[in-house]
Fold:
Amino acid sequence: MKYTKDHEWLRVEGDLVVVGITEHAATQLGDVVFVELPEPETQVAEGDEVCVIESVKAASDILAPVDGEIVAVNQKLVDNPALVNEDPLGEGWFFKMKVDDLSVLDDFMDEDEYQDLIG
Amino acid sequence: MADPEGLIRLGLHDLHVELGGKMVPFAGYEMPVQYAEGVLREHLHTRSAAGLFDVSHMGQVILRPKGSIEDLKRAFEALMPVDVLGLAEGRQRYGLFTNDQGGILDDLMFTNRGDHLYVVVNAACKAADIAHMTAAMPGVEVQPVTDRALLALQGPGAQAALEGLVPGVAAMRFMDHRIFGGIWVSRSGYTGEDGFEVSVPQAEAESFARRLLAQPGVAPIGLGARDSLRLEAGLCLYGHDIDTTTSPVEANLTWAIPKARRAGGVREGGFPGAARILRELAEGPARLRVGLRPEGRAPMREGVELFTDDGTPAGRVTSGGFGPSVNAPVAMGYVARSHATIGTILQGELRGKRHPVTVADLPFHPTSYKR
Structure:
């Protein structure tokens, strides 16, 4: 698992990258009540706002962590946004991306580095 | 997040931290926005059991007449388009300070306590309100109460929990006020639920709060849930839903303006801004505060602009969010009177896209006051 400074996690699954938000981010956001997902088969660039997430407190954006194509989104979040709080690292994933070269993930933080960031 | 330096810490600060409260700046005070349970569960807990809120940041003020209580009532009534003279001893009422333009300086609760009035005003307006009352009522001693905490206990379990500590409160009804030794109890609140607001001497406040929290069903609730609860109850938040530019008529608070103060009434006018307020009562205001129900699940928060289907600007959201008990987004805002009919469908602009939102009746969640 890799982590971004925007508190997203990235997990390699075959040739895809699964993206979600960390437990720390989910706790900070508070109860998530609405998630707007991107259309699958969308080309995105690093830093693009691809999802909107609304908690009881505020709206936030989920950014594309790398360049690539969104190939799948977690439709379950639309009906049950609370999954983001209940299981942020598992059932609460947001989208899957196809990237040209998985080695781009090497630049992101590992677990220890991320813990240092939030600690 | 703002630097907590310079913020006022209130008496129950350490208790909030011990209870897991997340302390944030609010109106110059350091206040718990939520506890470990989070806003959603705290909200639902208040509606199903009992929530304890620390609202000690609000301004408690005693108004004492230099002459008779009737003189005080008349002087106080001259600041607001409401009925002060007719308020019986032991009863509380909602009031609004207006300015000469008919805008709202603050909203407040006031109580007739026999030989004086007890007033509770918003934290952010406290200093201005005290200055306003002092300047406008030379025959009145305006005494800020600085040695008391203010706690709100709200929800269907509130009566049983408070009765255990303060026997006698169960006999009170909505908007009653009673003094039990050093404890001042009003049967009112800001959640739409039955409940109480309790003023407690600072020295006793922490033990009182701990004893309340030990009662079955009582949980600490932060300002986050207080906001979603009052929003579902259709209650205004000063500085958001009402301010110096909104009149009580525009704010749909005409229920607070009795016949006696309206055109043809026995005490017609005689309050700041009467010309505008009486005109709007007669002719209808240009815009009106309404409830708004966005379609779907995306909340429409303060600042969202509203349009008609053909793109004409129609108004703006003044507060909004997700209503946990309604289980849907809810909002309030001002719309042109021609769009204020219940059921009117408008378009709210969220992130560049327009989404349907329906003008709706308030409150969103039925109130359960003990009348």
